[in-house]
Every structure is written in structure tokens, then in C-alpha cells.
Design a protein that fits this description.
- The longest helix is centred in the N-terminal third of the chain and has 27 residues.
- The chain is an alpha/beta fold.
- Helices cover 41% and strands 13% of the residues.
- Strands 8-7-9-10-12-11-17 form a seven-stranded mixed beta sheet, with helices on both faces. It has a five-stranded parallel beta sheet with strand order 1-2-3-5-4, with helices on both faces. Strands 14-16-15-18-19 form a five-stranded mixed beta sheet, with helices on both faces.
Length: 683
């Protein structure tokens, strides 16, 4: 056995949890329910393997056979409105939460009639009606998402709990430690359930994990932790029941390590030499089969009549036959259905404009007012990030929000960007509208999995059904001598990712209206605020009333006839300044601000190019691989016949941002550089 009883006791005692009393009897109804679920899980995955070998199940799948007691006993403790986040071995979890096996089977076969319309497959099955947040192909990703769902549950006050399933490998991910810490600090109702099946693809956890039991790590976060026999459904049920009660009472998270063993290889596609010792394998499969163990318990307790047990087996077989027939009878998803799943539709707004507005605000003040008004309008909107509370953030963008809305809705986070952004994703999925501030946008590199693999893909993987109303915002770019790791302009990363909306305002008016629209949007929005606009953007007219600017609508900041300058963010005021200089030389410059980089308003840009026949694209980011290259390609593709000169691009030098102020100014496009490049276009 992988862990002796004394080892389990030691882990339990060190982490402060009560040892489970697995000798307590469960009611006959509970035992029958757990047994039925276990049978359903086992036969589902046994048939899945057969269907995979026959070519009906697409791609790959990861069998849950051998681990059925964990999912079934956990699921038996949950309400329908409780949340569950799963991993790539998630069939059992979904079934235990009540998922429809016909829809699951159709999804495994890649059919439009499946849970996710054939777009998610085995690793991404979910049912938002049951608050199943999805199986997940990224190791450990369920944990940050679960902290977010746990935070949403706490803010909404409905007594829900969240279960985050992960494997032993996930306990070595940074997000495990960050999520445990965050859940403990905020006392979130989350159960971290480690299904320790003892091997990754081929490597034993004892070769990769610094502690002999994962549960021992709980003590570092002041969280109860316990190691249990994951193949004993009764022990799992009783342990989970206590943890669920604790979570519902507001006492915070629990870490449960359930020792178990998968029977098959890592995945159905894997065809590797199995490194597991033969004696160990036979011991777990022959002597510790969780289905046979619960059958033995049922017989010893006379809890379920033998006739009823046979009826359960027959019923499960009938369900599976129907599910397989349903899956095989489905239709392939269409390209149109696939494309429609990427984004939720954007709302349409009539732009208010600034005519007659005499009140002026700074860029940061406009952002602040947008958050104030949206938080007052909608209780589901909240802000979190490093130092956003009483201090108002290092650039004072969140000043006064903490005093008006309190610590529940203006939350200072630990320095753990990956997890608090993941927490935002989970909270958005669970019905909130989080605004997540990155103190400096360079730190977004730490969050890429949560933004790119979770936020951007969640709606798509689930067949275009859920919404992910998340705003991730913060200051990017240079100009204030913060050197190479605090001064990057990284918008091109995000415009490359389907599923993300990318917004970059250039004026106080746009900042307020676009942030309002971003908060109301049902998609994940990367909202970029350039530091140059914080410090040298000046004041501008901003209406007092709440307003939203339509996402995907560019603005012609200045009309002209000789050349179009497409400028973004901090380069817009510099382009306007260059245009005024060039006007004195008889050169008429039209300045177009896309405002939203994705989706891009191609029509407004092309209309301007058709009028002027020349175009310069200016952004603060590096020229090489920058966003401007996509705009240039679009113009060459759709407006080539209108061009009287090649499309020109102007961006930062191909170098990290220097600390020296003279070199920094030389690196970022200046008003003079913009004007000179326009002159060159007209030669």
C-alpha cells in the first residue's frame, strides 16, 4: 500500500484535521447512491476505451477507472448549486455531479449534440446548469478557478461550496500554493481534493514531491489537511462531509489527499511502457478495487438487496447503450457554429460625445469615475489587485473605492498574479463581474495561462454557452524611467489570442466610456492604460453621467486629406501634436485612433486610407512583431489599390526599455519622429 495507516495518521495530526471515522455506517440510500454512481462511472469509461479503440471517440481521453470512490463520495455531499472544477481525468467528476452521460458521450465523439457542441471533447466537458466549471487540460488550473468561484459564492452569500479536483502533479504547481494561500486568507468555501494516483504520465510522485504526503502542505497555509484512503467510499464520504460542513459555516478551505490508483495508462492515446511495478499494480487492482470494496460494505451492512444491485447494474448498462446510440446519431458541428462560440456579442451603444461638456478630468480620474459608477450601478462588479484598497494603488486609479464600497468589493490580493487573475476568471464564470488590476502590466507574463488558456478559451471550449465578464487592467508602457521589466507594451500578445478583447484608450473621455463598456461586456477584456497618459496625458472633457463607448468602434481624432496616421494609446496625442506641426508645412494629417485593438474597426481605417492614399501606423510597442504589422497587412490586403506609397510603421526600437532617460526618450516614438516619417511618406 502506498501509505500505511500510521503515515496517514501522522499526516492528519500534523495538518490539524480530525481523523475520519470510517467505521461509521452510512444510510442505505447514501450507500446505494454512491454505488450507483461508481458503477455508472466505471462502465462509462470502460465503454469509452472500447469506443476509442474503435475510432468513435475522437482525439484522446483519460480514464477514471480505479478512482471512482472519490468522485462518487464527493458528489454525494454536494448540492446542485455547489461548484465543481475538474481536471483532464474528469469524466467521473462530471458524472458524480449529475452530468447527462448521453451529452457526455456525444461530446467525446465530437458531435454537435454534445455538451460543448463538439468543441471541447473529453478534457473540457462541463455543465454550467449544474455548476460544473469544466474539466481542464491544464494541470492544476482548477484551483485558481475554484478560488474565484469560492469568492463569488462568499460574496453572493448563498452557502455554496466549491470542489477543486487535482492530481498529485498539480500539488507541485505554483498555483496550488497560491490558491491555498488565497483561499485561506479570504476563508473561501473551497475543498481542495488531491486525487493522488501516485504517477504522472510515467513518473512516481515520490520522485518529484518533497513531502511524503501532499496533505502535509496544508499546515503551511493554516488549513486542515488529511490523507485518506481514496478507494474507500465510506471514508471519503465522511471526510468530505466534515469539510463541506466547515466550508458552509464560513470556516474556510480544507485539503483532502485521497490515495488511489489509476488502472490504465495516463491516457487512452498513450502507448508507453508502464513503469509501475507489477506487484504494486496487482495489489491495487486486485485487492483495492473501489467498486468491489463498496459492494462488500453493502453486503456486510445488508444495505441494498441483491436484487436491487442487479437492477442498478442493468439500468447502468441500458443508460450507456442509449448514450452511445445518441452519440453515434449526432451531427458534426459546422464552421459557423465554431466561429459563433468564440465571443459573446458586444452591446451596442450610442456614443455620448463631449459636445458642450466643460468639466475636465485627468486620465486616471476618468478611469476612477468609471469604476465608481459601475460598482454603484451593479453589485456584481468588484475590484481586486495588489494595493488597490486603502492606498488606491500606486497610480491612485482606485482612490476612494475602498472607502465607498468596502473591503468585500475592493480586495487587496497577495502578490500572486497567476492565481488572483485565475480567481477573477472563476468569479466571472460564477456570475460576478471582476475588475482585476495588475500593478504593472509587465507582470501579465505570470498570468498567461489563466488569460490565454482559461479566460480566452472557456466560452469556446464549452460550445459558446457561458460568459466570462472579466476586465484585466493596468498600466503598461514606458516613459517614466521604470526600466526593462516595468515598461513593456505587450498588446500584440493579446490581439493574437481569439477570445480576448483588447482595449487601449487615449483620452480621458475614451478611458471612462471604454472602461464602462468593458465592465459590462460578457467577454474577457484586456484593458491597457499607458503610463505616459497617466503622467502627461493632460485633462480632457468627460461627461459626469455614466456612458459607454461601443467596443470595436474607432474614432477619427483629426480629419485630414494627405496622409492617415493610425495611432494607438499614448501615441495618439503625439500624432495629434505632429499633425499640428505638419499643418504649418501645408500637410493635412488624418489621425485615426482604433481605441479597440481587438475587435478592430477595419472599416474606419480603410475609409481613411481610401481618402488619403498614404498611411503611417504608430504604436509605443516594438515595431518588430507589433500590432501595427497586422494593421499594415489588413490595409495591404483590402486597400492596396488605394495606396500611393508603401504602408509605413513606427514603433519602439528593438531593445528592452533602458533606464537612462535620454535613451528611453530615444526608444519610444516621439512627436518629431512621427512628423519626420510623415514627411518621408510624401516625398
Amino acid at each position: 500500500m502506498a501509505t500505511t495507516q500510521s503515515t496517514q495518521k501522522s499526516a492528519t495530526q500534523k495538518s490539524g484535521a480530525k481523523e475520519p471515522t470510517s467505521n461509521m455506517q452510512l444510510s442505505a440510500d447514501v450507500l446505494e447512491g454512491i454505488y450507483t454512481t461508481m458503477c455508472r462511472i466505471r462502465r462509462f469509461d470502460e465503454m469509452t476505451h472500447k469506443l476509442f479503440d474503435e475510432g468513435h471517440v475522437k482525439g484522446t481521453a483519460h480514464s477514471y477507472v480505479g478512482q471512482e470512490a472519490i468522485a462518487a463520495a464527493v458528489g454525494a455531499n454536494l448540492r446542485k448549486d455547489d461548484y465543481m472544477a475538474s481536471n483532464h481525468r474528469g469524466h467521473g467528476h462530471c458524472i458524480a455531479k449529475g452530468a447527462d452521460i448521453s451529452l457526455m458521450m456525444a461530446e467525446l465523439m465530437g458531435q454537435e449534440s454534445g455538451y460543448c457542441g463538439g468543441l471541447g471533447g473529453s478534457m473540457h466537458i462541463a455543465d454550467m446548469k449544474l455548476n460544473i466549471l469544466g474539466a481542464n487540460g491544464i494541470v492544476g488550473a482548477a484551483m485558481p478557478l475554484s478560488t474565484g468561484a469560492g469568492l463569488a459564492a462568499k460574496l453572493q452569500g448563498n452557502g455554496q461550496v466549491v470542489v477543486a479536483f487535482f492530481g498529485d502533479g498539480g500539488s507541485n504547481q505554483g498555483v496550488f500554493h497560491e490558491s491555498m494561500n488565497l483561499a485561506s486568507v479570504w476563508k473561501l468555501p473551497v475543498l481542495f481534493v488531491c486525487e493522488n494516483n501516485q504517477y504522472a504520465l510515467s513518473t512516481s510522485y515520490r520522485q518529484t514531491t518533497s513531502v511524503n504526503q501532499v496533505a502535509r502542505r496544508a499546515q503551511g497555509y493554516d488549513v486542515p489537511g488529511i490523507t485518506i484512503d481514496g478507494n474507500d467510499a465510506v471514508e471519503v464520504y465522511l471526510t468530505v462531509r466534515e469539510a463541506v460542513e466547515r466550508a458552509r459555516a464560513g470556516d474556510g478551505p480544507t485539503l483532502i489527499e485521497a490515495m488511489t490508483y489509476r488502472w490504465g495508462q495516463h491516457s487512452m492515446r498513450a502507448n508507453l511502457r508502464d513503469p509501475r511495478p507489477e506487484k504494486e499494480y496487482k495489489d491495487w487492482v486486485k485487492r483495492r478495487d473501489p467498486v468491489k470494496r463498496i459492494e462488500k460494505t453493502i453486503r456486510s451492512e445488508s444495505a441494498v438487496a441483491p436484487k436491487r444491485m442487479k437492477e442498478i447494474t442493468a439500468s447502468v448498462e441500458s443508460e450507456l447503450e442509449s448514450a452511445i446510440a445518441f452519440g453515434k446519431g449526432g451531427e458534426e458541428p459546422t464552421v459557423e457554429e465554431m466561429l459563433a462560440a468564440v465571443y459573446s456579442p458586444h452591446a451596442h451603444y450610442d456614443e455620448l460625445g463631449t459636445e458642450g461638456v466643460t468639466r475636465e478630468l485627468a486620465f486616471t480620474e476618468a478611469l476612477n469615475e468609471a469604476m465608481h459608477q459601475e460598482m454603484a450601478r451593479d453589485d456584481t462588479v468588484f475590484l481586486m489587485g495588489e494595493d488597490v484598497g486603502a492606498t488606491g494603488g500606486i497610480f491612485q486609479v482606485s482612490k476612494g473605492l475602498f472607502e465607498e464600497f468596502g473591503e468585500a468589493r475592493v480586495r487587496d490580493t497577495p502578490i500572486s498574479e497567476a492565481t488572483f487573475v485565475g480567481c477573477g476568471v472563476g468569479a466571472a464564470i460564477a456570475g460576478m463581474r471582476p475588475i482585476v488590476e495588475l500593478q504593472i502590466f509587465d507582470f501579465v507574463a505570470l498570468t498567461m495561462d489563466m488569460l490565454v488558456n482559461q479566460a480566452a478559451k472557456f466560452r469556446f471550449m464549452l460550445g459558446g454557452k457561458p460568459k466570462v465578464p472579466l476586465v484585466v487592467r493596468g498600466p503598461q508602457g514606458g516613459g517614466i524611467r521604470m526600466a526593462a521589466q516595468h515598461s513593456q507594451s505587450l498588446e500584440a500578445w493579446f490581439t493574437h489570442v481569439p477570445g480576448l478583447v483588447v482595449v487601449g484608450p487615449s483620452t480621458p473621455y475614451d478611458a471612462k466610456g471604454l472602461l464602462t463598456a468593458a465592465i459590462r461586456d460578457d467577454n474577457p477584456v484586456v484593458f491597457l492604460e499607458t503610463k505616459l497618459l497617466y503622467v502627461e496625458g493632460g485633462n480632457g472633457p468627460v461627461p459626469e453621467e455614466s456612458y459607454a463607448i461601443p467596443i470595436g468602434k474607432a474614432d477619427v481624432k483629426r480629419e485630414g486629406t494627405d496622409v492617415t496616421v493610425v495611432a494607438t494609446m499614448a501615441m495618439v496625442p503625439r500624432a495629434l501634436s505632429a499633425a499640428r506641426t505638419l499643418e504649418c508645412e501645408g500637410i493635412s494629417v488624418e489621425v485615426v485612433d482604433p481605441r479597440t485593438l481587438k475587435p478592430l474597426d477595419e472599416e474606419t481605417i480603410l475609409n481613411s486610407v481610401e481618402k488619403t492614399n498614404r498611411v503611417l501606423i504608430v504604436h509605443e510597442a516594438w515595431t518588430t512583431g507589433g500590432f501595427g504589422a497586422e494593421v499594415a497587412a489588413m490595409i495591404a490586403d483590402k486597400g492596396f489599390d488605394w495606396l500611393d506609397a508603401p504602408v509605413k510603421r513606427l514603433g519602439a526600437m528593438d531593445t528592452p526599455m533602458p533606464y537612462n532617460d535620454e535613451l528611453e526618450r530615444a526608444t519610444i516614438p516621439s512627436t518629431e519622429k512621427i512628423a519626420q516619417t510623415v514627411r518621408e511618406l510624401l516625398r
